[in-house]
C-alpha cells in the first residue's frame, strides 16, 4: 500500500431536494422524491462508505417570474423542497453521517435560525452542518427589502452568522445546572440578554435553547469570488471548492483561504477544503475511451437536452434557437450572472460562434488518465485523489443526485480501491461531524 493521505469525502446532492430520476431511465424504480425513503437509503450507504457528510443544494426561488416555465418544465431548476426539513429524516436513518442542508440568510431571521439549528444539532447528536449561500435573486420572496449586491449579501451573511453564534453563546459555562436536589435546572444569572442592532438585523437574546456539548453546527460555504473565499477563511469549517485540478490552481486556491483564515485569527487547519468533482466511473479503460469518443460527436437531440438545462440555469430560452447560428448577445437579461454565461460560451467569440459549438463543448467529456476530464476507472480516479492529497488537499466532494442507482454506480468499485490505498476511512466516529472532520 502507498503512503497516501486520508481524505475527507462528502456527497453533494447538486440539484437539491427535488424530482429525482426525472428524465432518467431509473425513474421506473418508482421512488417518490417527496418522501424520505429514497434519501434515507442513500444516506445509509454513504455512511457505510465512510463519507463524512451529505450536503444538499438549495435555492428557495423559482427565479424570475417571466422565465419560471424554463425552470420547472424539465425540473432542472425546481420544484425544490426545503432540505433543512429533510435533515431529521436522514439523521434518523443514520448513526454518524453529517447532514448539511443549504441555508440562505435571507430566508431565516437570526433568532429563528439559531433556535432551529440548535434544536437539530441536539436531535442529531452533533451531526448538523449548514451550507451558507448568498443567493440574492430570491430576495423578493422574503419581504420588500431591495435586492442586495454581491458583496453586500456576504456582509449580511457575516452579520447573520455572527448573530446566530452570539445567540448560541448566550449561555455561560455552568448556566445549565440540572441539580435535582435543589430543583434548579438553569442559573438564569448566567444567560446574556444580548441585544443586536446591526445593518441588516435587530434582535435580542438570550436564546431559549440549551448550549452544545460537542461544538456548534459545522459551517460550510461554496463562494469562489474573493469575497466568498474571505467569508470561508473567516467563518467556515468546510469550503466547497471549484477550481481546475492541477497543482498550481489547487495550491493557490488553498493558500487564498488559508491567508483569509489567518487574517481573521483562525488557523489554516480549522478549515477543510473539499474540491467538487463529478466522476463517471466505468469498468475499464476501453469503456472510458468509448464514452469519451461518443461525447465528442453529440447528436442534435443531446444538444437540445443541454440547451434545455442551460435555459433553466441561465433563465434564458435557448431551446428554440437555430443551432447553426451565433447567439444574439442581447438575449441574456441583466439578471443573468456573467459567470454562468461564460460557462456556456467559454473564451469563444459569441458574435461569430454557432450555438452548436458552445453546446458541443459542454457535452465533451475527457479522460481521467490524461487529466482531460473525469471519465475513468476506479483506479484512475483514486490516482487523481491520491495526487490531490500529495498537494496538501483535505478532501473531495462527489457530485450527483442521491439516487441509490447513482450511488452504486459511483461507489461500488471505488470504495474498495480507495480503502485499499488508505485514502478513504473505514469507519466514521460516532461523536458528531466536527469530530469526524478533525480526525485527520
Ligand atoms: C460545490 C458548490 C455548491 C454550491 N451550492 C449552492 C447552493 O446550494 N445554493 C446556491 O444558491 N448556490 C450554491 N453554489 C453557488 C455559490 O453559493 C455562489 O453563488 C457562487 O459560487 C458565486 O459566489 P461567488 O461570487 O462568491 O463565487 C454552490 C457552488 C459550488 C461550487
Walkthrough of the structure:
- Belongs to the NtaA/SnaA/DszA monooxygenase family.
- It comes from Microbacterium aurum.
- Keywords: Flavoprotein, FMN, Monooxygenase, Oxidoreductase.
- GO terms for molecular function: monooxygenase activity; oxidoreductase activity, acting on paired donors, with incorporation or reduction of molecular oxygen.
- FMN binds at residues 58, 102, 150, 154, 225.
- With 440 residues, the chain is of the alpha/beta class.
- It has two domains: 8-282 and 377-438, Luciferase-like domain (TIM Barrel, Alpha-Beta Barrel); 285-363, no CATH class.
- It is 38% helix and 13% strand.
- The chain has 15 helices and 14 strands.
- Strand 3, helix 4 (110-123) and strand 4 form a beta-alpha-beta unit.
- Helix 4 (110-123) packs across helix 5 (150-168), helix 5 (150-168) runs parallel beside helix 6 (226-235) and helix 12 (378-390) crosses helix 14.
- It is globular.
- It starts with 7 loop residues before the first strand and ends with a helix.
- The mean pLDDT is 95.
- The structure holds flavin mononucleotide (FMN).
- The site of flavin mononucleotide has 18 residues, from helix 6.
- Flavin mononucleotide is lined by residues 12, 57-59, 102, 131, 133, 135, 150, 222-225, 227-228, 240, 242, 276.
